[in-house]
Amino acid sequence: MVGMRLLFIYSGIQTLSHLGENVVGAFKMLEKEMGNFHIQTHFPTTDPLANLAEKIKSFRPQIALVFCKDAHPMTRYIRNWAPGIPIGLWVVNDPYHLTDYEWMVPSYDFMLTQDSGCVPYYRNVKKRPAFHVPLAVNPVLYRPMNVSPTYQSDICFVGSAWPGRLPFFDRLRVLLMKKKFLIIGEGWEKLKYYHQLKRGIRTNKIPPDEVSRYYNGAKIVLNIHRTSDDLGRNPRKVPALTPNNRTFDIAACGAFQLASKRYDLGRYYQLGKEMVDYSDITDLKRKMIYYLNHEQQRKKIAEGAYQRTLQEHSYHVRMRRLVGILHGYLRRRN
Fold this sequence. Notes:
By secondary structure, the chain is of the alpha/beta class. The protein has helices at 19-34, 49-59, 74-81, 98-101, 119-125, 166-176, 194-197, 208-217, 245-252, 265-268, 281-292, 295-312, 315-333; strands at 4-9, 37-42, 63-67, 87-91, 110-113, 130-132, 153-158, 181-184, 201-202, 218-223, 257-260, 276-278. It has 2 domains: 4-136 and 314-333, Glycogen Phosphorylase B (Rossmann fold, 3-Layer(aba) Sandwich); 149-312, 3-Layer(aba) Sandwich (Rossmann fold), CATH 3.40.50.2000. The longest helix has 19 residues, at 315-333. It starts with a strand and ends with a helix.
């Protein structure tokens, strides 16, 4: 592969899942390993604008990538100081917030999206080259470990109370109340049956090291994907097809999960052997009861998902693939 110099612009604002830090860390590892790939980072929230000009002058990037939407105003400076290089926008919350940033797309030369359902939208509607780069896991943060009883449960869910999830847990309440359960995240006081379930609810955000402990302590971790237009910001009803990063986080802990169906899930794990999904609440209840009573099957499936995740779904593996995508894009442009 011919060498490539990538300018990576990221707001520096830390997300709960440390997405930006995981991506930058993986890129830095690849820079050491590959020899022909080089990266320069810029954080607009902490670096003066003059620093960007100096970095561009000394680094001479061949391609630029803006992570999420925070650094959009940087595009005009990049085009001024590095004329002719392609600039891509990398979106990691598709399609839930489509109206928040779709107006930005014409300012960029190409798109990266974490959900495969948005690729046709960017290509056909927005007329931009678009590539699918799913999220992944940092196995340093999410890994198997022994945990104290505080973190142990029969059933665990970590995540925010998005509108599509609230009625789901209200309908699970009878089963949950018979088990040791934990629901952790913001907004769960909005549950219709909150007062019946509040003994197992923690309405606060927790960092990845704590999330990992709760995953390790659970017999079953629920992975309830968001509905594609849960906030009313996806008026085109672009489908959400790709599993969320929680899928990989849970698997990297060696934990067993029951995941709501996503079209692409079978592309990443062998269903029934490395991952178990469910179709509706009736199916979920049946599988929760079954797998709570079949420990060896749980462990075997979780081990399969764990091995697959380490081999194929770390940020290191993803960013290596992304470097190949960017190289191919540059080659086709030249």
